[in-house]
Amino acid sequence: MQELCDFEAGRMEQKGFRHVDHVRLGFEMLDRYPFADALARFTTGLKLLAAKAGSPDLYNETITVAFLAVIGERLASNQTTWSEFIHANPDLLDKRLLEAWYDPVRLNSDISRRTFCLPNPRRDAVPRKSEVLGR
User: What is the pTM of this model?
Assistant: First the structure.
């Protein structure tokens, strides 16, 4: 697919590149490559796209990894075409989907832009320091 090659090489334009395009190219990458390879390629393409637009701060590591993980999980459970996939998973077109796992403030923080952050753990699932230290 020429579009994937253009995306990875930074030949695409940010103008007109919408959320649905992110999801579709994520789907295409995950359909072709193992998760780690798809993630590396997709990350490179997004960073090049943001830099080309003059806004490298648009890139968010947490959003990228988390969205690809959701797409990958759903794709792994049901191999299908893009049309069938998005018809079965229309919630992926909602940019706020990750708010089911993440607090929006955390998701859009500087640290989430720079590195992948796990969702905030449930309070009842976090061991107290004394339990970690064995006291």
Answer: 0.84
